[in-house]
Specification:
This protein has 953 residues and is α/β, with parallel strands linked by helices. It contains 13 helices and 65 strands. Among the domains are: 175 residues, no CATH class; 134 residues; 151 residues, no CATH class; 145 residues, no CATH class. The protein has a 29-stranded mixed β-sheet. The protein has a 20-stranded parallel β-sheet, with no helix packed on it. Strands 40, 42, 44, 45, 47, 49, 51, 53, 55, 57, 59, 61 and 65 form a 13-stranded mixed β-sheet that branches. The radius of gyration is 47 Å and the shape is elongated. The mean pLDDT is 92.
Length: 953
């Protein structure tokens, strides 16, 4: 049931479309309280002069519509007009009864207010709030103004219909009532070079003082009194010399709330503490003079900017200082609460017993207690520092629990928080501290010797060392930035990084750290706990290394993601201890060296085996795991792995395993089309100049096809494929360089099927391949777009790609080479004729300008550019008149003379290394260039065993 106050407010809304004034509300509520009926009061509203001005002269339909608008905030619908207007016209219903009747209809059949009823109730509630605002002490001006101007009240009520508009109206009731108060007149005055006595009025007055060279408008007899209102003094000083201090010259300012002053000099010694009413100060100095010794009264918010001078401020409540270069900034004051500093490389000192928050960008904070709330004060809780110089940062305050340090660093530094409050918790936000702009580490050491709990939140990659915070037992890690958090204090027992989304690098945990959780980033840690530990990593690709033998009952759960559990035999868990080691979801890796017949049952849900065992491993022991892949992510030793079902191996270790051989005894490789993949995916830190990812020898018998992917970042890979009498094909892809060799018997020599293809045509990295120990069967070698080097141990057909490639042919071999688009070097010095009746010849099918032919180095080689005429020859070799004989040097020496001729559609180059005067010999070198389009008269190389083909080749 509505109260009497609400009923009267509804009448004011219905008849006058406004909130009640304070006196009117009290009068009519008093009448109701005394027993006067609401109908009688409604009729009185109907005859009041205010009603007459609103309703008199309107047609019946307009009266009905006005009532609808006042009550519900909407116009009357046609049905309402048709029903009520005739009744008003013939006097069946009075306006007073009309208001009551229409208002009573704003409910549904069950008596619950409909949208109109809600709007009416909301308008009455808003009207009550407005009247209450007028009645509050201090709001007398609003109340008096409303009695003569109620238009703002009408606007206020008209804005309300829904619950949302009611909430907005109530939230803004004071601002709405304030619009009732007339704006006082404003004074704008300019100071002169004479004596100025200026007095403001009730408004917000402005006084301007400006001058250039040759004088000032401020003098000792000037008196500026702002009077009432919020008053401003603007000072524009372009006359003070750059190295000189600005001065007020004794001018008196009273009742001034804001002073804005700009000087071409500095503000040293400026004392504004005596200016009554002063709350806001803005000082800007463009000269070289310092702005130190500035004095402000309490309660003043100030900004001091100096382009080339130091800043020193005493007093004020909220002070901002901005300078550059090596200029120092000093802020101090008993009432100083908030300090904001932007500096260059100069020293920054901020002190105050009332400090609550400090923000510093740039500056040197290495001074003793550079930011100081006092040893026993607790008001300062938050300090934010960005881009400070590479020096230590020293903070003091007994309530200091929130510290943020951001920005790249090019040198290590220590952040010292001196907070003597025992057992406090410190929150440290790291935003890029600990690394320079290139990502090189310069670790930030965090020291708080009284904190027992530490939370580190990162928004950018950071490196933090908390080992000096010796009492911290609990560490919480949050944030999206990658964090290297190592080392940490010896007292830490729990680390909770479950909420972190950036990668966590925790290093080697101390012996007491027994509860460890990490988040969704790619996290890593080394566990050295000597008591029962619990480790739970999150959803990222995490790595846990065992740094000591874990205690019985320890639980390690690696969670989702492709995780790793690494370690060596010395840290292998004991059998039957109740220990749980669970790889969780994803493709998870476990070190083979951790596993033996006694403890294999401890390991669950691992899919990948890291080959680091010194003794090898029978994978049949891993009954709780399904090993589908192998990896090298640490140094290995020579070992044999039995019952291997994996179809591939991935190398992610940057290092040298070249002295080791891993023999893989694979299951189910009795067929004729078995394949094994070897993928290089290591990430180096420095661009290599030689192989830096050395996988050593991988021996996997029974494999017909090896698929090698030479990938990784800053990686140059090397691999030796071990004995495999089933091998027939090697396929190489990838963008990283690869050195490939073979050991043992690679290829089926007994069945004379051998290796038919080494295909690197899709590789873009440089390939260096030596086919020694490869048993060939019509061997074809293809290379890709890199600068490839192929050293052959037998006859082969070679097809190279677009790079500058080099092919070294084998002794006693017949080799056919297609060189591709790049410069091709054919080194045939090992392939001598060997026979005069069936000589070994090296063929280059696509010789071109720039290609290089390498012959036997005798030290006295000569090249004859003129083509030898072999037109009388009846055979290339083996006949009565042989072209090779005609082209040989008949001087009885072994001087290695090189000549060329054309025969039967091809071009030949021969190096005569035989001491014969009549014919070529078995020690000569022969290279055939397919076709007759080659003109070697422009080739270069006289006196050397290296011949570079010129134009026409």
């Amino acid at each position: 049931m509505a109260t009497n106050t609400a009923l009267i407010q509804q009448l004011y809304v219905a008849y006058y479309n406004r909130p009640a004034d304070v006196g009117g509300l009290a009068f009519w509520v008093g009448k109701l309280d005394a027993g006067v009926s609401i109908d009688a009061i409604s009729k009185a509203f109907n005859t009041a002069p205010e009603y007459t001005s609103l309703y008199a002269g309107k047609t019946p339909a307009q009266i009905v519509d006005t009532v609808y608008v006042n009550l519900f905030g909407r116009h009357a619908e046609q049905g309402g007009l048709n029903f009520w207007a005739p009744k008003v016209q013939d006097g069946t219903i009075s306006t007073a009864d009309l208001v009551k009747a229409i208002g009573a209809g704003a409910v549904d059949a069950s008596g619950v207010p409909n949208n109109d009823g809600i709007a009416l109730a909301n308008k009455a509630t808003a009207a009550a709030a407005f009247t209450d605002e007028l009645s509050q002490p201090g709001n007398e001006a609003e109340r008096l103004a409303y009695e003569s101007n109620n238009v703002p009240g009408r606007t206020y009520v008209a804005s309300v219909t829904t619950d949302a508009s009611l909430a907005t109206a109530i939230a803004n009731v004071h601002a709405s009532a304030q619009t009732l108060i007339p704006t006082p007149p404003v004074t704008v005055a300019a100071l002169t070079t004479g004596i100025d006595t200026l007095t403001g009025g009730a408004g917000n007055d402005t006084f301007n003082a400006s001058w250039t060279t040759g004088g000032t408008v401020l003098g000792g007899l000037d008196v500026i009194d702002g009077g009432a209102g919020s008053n401003i003094v603007n000072i524009a000083d372009a006359g003070t010399a750059a190295g000189t201090a600005f001065a007020l010259n004794g001018a008196t300012f009273k009742n001034i709330q804001t002073i804005n002053a700009a000087t071409s000099g500095g503000f040293t010694g400026l004392d504004l503490s005596g200016v009554t009413g002063l709350t806001n100060v803005a000082l800007s100095a463009s000269g070289t003079a310092a702005s130190t010794g500035i004095v402000l009264g309490s309660g003043v918010t100030a900004t001091v900017s100096a382009s080339a001078g130091a800043i020193g401020v005493t007093g004020g409540t909220n002070v901002t200082a901005v300078t550059t270069g090596a200029n120092a900034v000093t802020l101090a004051g008993t009432a100083l609460s908030v300090a904001n500093v932007t500096a260059g490389t100069g020293a920054v000192g901020i002190s105050g017993a009332a400090l609550t928050a400090v923000t510093v960008k740039g500056g040197d904070l290495s001074g003793a207690n550079a930011i100081d709330n006092g040893a026993a004060k607790t008001t300062l809780t938050t300090v934010t520092i960005t881009d400070a110089v590479d020096a230590n940062i020293n903070l003091r305050g007994a309530g200091l629990t929130n510290v943020s340090v951001g920005g790249a660093t090019s040198a290590a530094r220590t952040v010292t928080v001196t907070n003597a409050t025992a057992g406090h918790a410190l929150k440290f936000t790291a935003a890029g501290t600990g690394y320079d702009a290139a990502g090189v580490e310069h670790q930030t050491v965090l020291t708080d010797t009284a904190a027992t709990a530490l939370t580190v939140t990162t928004s950018a990659a950071s490196s933090v060392d908390a080992s000096n915070s010796t009492l911290v037992t609990a560490v919480t890690l949050n944030g999206a930035g990658a964090l290297k958090f190592a080392p940490m204090g010896a007292a830490v027992t729990s680390i909770d990084g479950s909420a972190a989304t950036g990668g966590l690098t925790l290093g080697t945990l101390n012996a007491a750290a027994v509860t460890v959780k990490t988040g969704s980033g790619n996290d890593s840690l080394t566990l050295s706990a000597t008591t029962v530990a619990t480790v739970a990593t999150g959803d990222g690709n995490d790595s846990v290394t065992l740094g000591s033998v874990i205690a019985a009952g320890t639980t390690i759960n690696l969670g989702a993601g492709n995780d790793k559990l690494l370690g060596v035999a010395a840290q292998a868990p004991a059998a039957g201890t109740g220990t749980v080691i669970d790889g969780g979801a994803g493709v998870d890796t476990v070190s083979a060296d951790l596993i033996n017949a006694g403890n294999a049952a401890v390991f669950k849900n691992f899919e990948n085996l890291s080959l680091n065992s010194a003794t090898g491993l029978d994978l049949a022991l891993l009954t709780g795991n399904t090993i589908t892949a192998l990896t090298m992510d640490t140094t290995t030793t020579t070992a044999t792995y039995q019952h291997v079902t994996a179809t591939g191996l991935t190398d992610t270790f940057v290092g040298d395993n070249s002295a080791f051989t891993n023999t893989l005894s694979l299951n189910s490789v009795s067929g004729s089309s078995d394949a094994f993949a070897i993928t290089f995916a290591a990430a180096g830190t420095v661009t290599p100049v030689a192989a830096n990812v050395k996988a050593g020898t991988i021996a996997a018998a029974g494999i017909e096809t090896f698929n090698i992917t030479s990938g990784g970042t800053k990686a140059w890979n090397s691999l030796t494929l071990g004995a495999d009498t089933s091998a027939s094909t090697v396929v190489i892809t990838g963008a990283a360089n690869l050195d490939l060799a073979f050991s043992g018997t690679f290829g089926d020599s007994a069945g004379h099927t051998g290796v038919s293809l080494i295909d690197g045509s899709a590789a873009t990295g440089a390939l260096t391949i030596n086919t020694t120990n490869v048993d060939p069967s019509g061997l074809v070698v293809k290379t890709g777009s890199g600068a490839d080097v192929i050293t052959l141990a037998s006859s082969a057909t070679v097809s190279t790609g677009a790079g500058a490639d080099s092919i070294v042919t084998a002794a006693g071999a017949t080799t056919t080479i297609t060189g591709g688009a790049g410069v091709t070097t054919v080194d045939a010095h090992l392939t001598v004729a060997a026979s005069t009746s069936a000589p070994k010849i090296t063929t280059l099918t696509d010789a071109k300008q720039g290609d290089i032919l390498t012959f036997l180095n005798q030290g006295t080689e000569t090249f004859t550019t003129t083509k030898v005429n072999v037109s009388t020859a009846t055979a290339l070799f083996g006949g009565t008149i042989n072209a090779l004989d005609l082209a040989s040097t008949a001087d009885g020496s072994t001087n290695g003379a090189i000549k060329w001729f054309q025969y039967a559609g091809d071009t030949y180059v021969i190096q005569d290394n035989t001491a014969s005067t009549t014919a070529f010999g078995t020690g000569d070198v022969i290279i055939k260039l397919t076709g007759l389009t080659h003109d070697l008269s422009t080739a270069a190389g006289a006196g050397t065993n290296i011949l570079t083909l010129g134009l026409g080749a």
